[in-house]
């Protein structure tokens, strides 16, 4: 009999899968089968409880709308909740820069926007000859409070600077295998999908083919490691010319449309008000939009709570209230 490639098995009967499922339930924590909350509670409701194991979510929208902020805030919320590990692989920013943004975010979530520390305040300390984290914490009560809260979950939150030629799908799989030794529940965030390199020596891939390989690869990683994966996806040039970027505007063709289980599109409604629109959702409703206020200086989204009238339309903006999009709000 011809051998199968390494890593593949022959088809299983439903009876065999039933036995395997029973063993899985007996040997694993059943919590591992449950979705993981993002801390954006209204979004979690639409997603039937949050990010589901084996699922791929794509996050799209025009530049500057807060896609990386959403990724970092969701990762922060997951880590702070304490029942899962969050890992952010970012091709755009260094780990130290992301750490500074997390301090700003944590100060806003814990102390309110009015008390949030900004990057400019952090940089003002760094410009001194005696700059240190200790001096920053001594000089700023907001930074000190944020840091004290940050230390409660910082071993649950992993940051990686993606390399433009080395952080391949195989490397991401190695990261997942490593993280699974640290905890059963893991969420991988990739910022962003189109930056993941696909090495094919001697073969020049079109951008669309590269994106297809990465999208399918991320979905396969989610299935193989039983984890949710969230990836930021860029829009094509035509989509960026439209008033709103839609799911079909994401760069990459049919595979980008088919592979993800959830597509979350962020678009600016007013100056700092961002609409989160779920345009694809295999686990629940689609076409639902939630409003969030973006505070760029604190790298934080606050939910704009709008009371519903009897006809389910939003009432006027002067009836809005706000609260941070976090698990511990």
Properties at a glance:
11 helices, about 325 residues, 10 strands, alpha/beta, 10-stranded mixed β-sheet, Rossmann fold, single chain, globular
Task: Give the SSE order as H and E letters.
Answer: HHEHEHHHHEHEHEHHEEEEE
The helicity comes to 25-40%
Distance between the termini: 59 Å
Number of helices: 11
What's the CATH class label? Alpha Beta
Shape descriptor: globular
Integer tally of domains: 1
Spatial order of strands in the largest sheet: 3-2-4-5-1-6-7-8-9-10
The description of the largest β-sheet is: 10 strands, mixed
Class based on secondary structure composition and strand pairing: alpha/beta
Protein topology:
Elements: H1 14-27, H2 41-46, E1 56-60, H3 67-81, E2 85-90, H4 95-111, H5 119-126, H6 133-139, H7 141-150, E3 157-161, H8 169-180, E4 186-191, H9 207-225, E5 229-232, H10 237-241, H11 254-258, E6 262-268, E7 273-281, E8 288-295, E9 300-305, E10 321-324
Parallel strand pairs: 1-5, 1-6, 2-3, 2-4, 4-5
Antiparallel strand pairs: 6-7, 7-8, 8-9, 9-10
Helix pairs in contact: 4-7, 6-7, 8-9
Can you describe this structure?
The chain has 329 residues and is of the alpha/beta class. The protein has one domain: P-loop containing nucleotide triphosphate hydrolases (Rossmann fold, 3-Layer(aba) Sandwich). 36% of the residues lie in helices and 18% in strands. The chain has eleven helices and ten strands. It has a ten-stranded mixed β-sheet with strand order 3-2-4-5-1-6-7-8-9-10, with helices on both faces. Helix 4 packs across helix 7 and helix 6 (133-139) packs across helix 7 (141-150). The protein is globular and about 70 Å long.
């Amino acid at each position: 009999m011809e051998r199968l490639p390494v890593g593949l098995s022959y088809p299983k009967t439903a009876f065999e899968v039933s036995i395997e499922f029973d063993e899985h339930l007996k040997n694993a924590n059943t919590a591992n089968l449950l979705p993981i909350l993002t801390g954006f509670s209204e979004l979690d409701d639409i997603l039937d409880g949050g990010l589901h194991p084996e699922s791929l979510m794509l996050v799209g929208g025009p530049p500057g709308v807060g896609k990386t902020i959403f990724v970092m805030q969701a990762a922060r919320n997951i880590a702070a909740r304490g029942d899962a590990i969050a890992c952010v692989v970012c091709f755009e920013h260094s780990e130290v820069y992301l750490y500074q943004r997390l301090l700003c975010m944590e100060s806003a979530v814990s102390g309110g926007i009015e008390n949030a520390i900004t990057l400019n305040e952090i940089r003002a300390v760094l410009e001194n000859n005696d700059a240190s984290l200790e001096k920053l914490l001594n000089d700023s009560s907001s930074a000190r409070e944020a840091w004290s809260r940050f230390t409660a979950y910082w071993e649950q939150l992993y940051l990686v600077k993606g390399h433009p030629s080395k952080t391949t799908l195989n490397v991401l799989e190695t990261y997942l295998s490593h993280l699974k030794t640290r905890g059963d529940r893991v969420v991988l965030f990739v910022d962003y999908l189109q930056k993941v390199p696909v090495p094919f020596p001697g073969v020049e891939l079109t951008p669309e083919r590269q994106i297809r390989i990465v999208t399918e690869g991320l979905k396969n990683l989610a299935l193989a490691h039983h984890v949710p994966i969230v990836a930021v996806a860029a829009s094509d040039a035509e989509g960026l010319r439209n008033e709103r970027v839609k799911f079909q505007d994401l760069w990459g063709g049919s595979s980008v449309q088919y592979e993800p289980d959830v597509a979350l599109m962020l678009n600016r409604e007013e100056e700092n008000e961002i609409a989160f629109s779920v345009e694809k959702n295999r686990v629940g409703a689609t076409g639902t939009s939630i409003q969030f206020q973006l505070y760029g200086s604190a790298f934080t989204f606050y939910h704009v709570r709008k009371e519903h009238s009897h006809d389910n339309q939003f009432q006027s903006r002067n009836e809005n209230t706000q609260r941070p999009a976090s698990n511990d709000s």
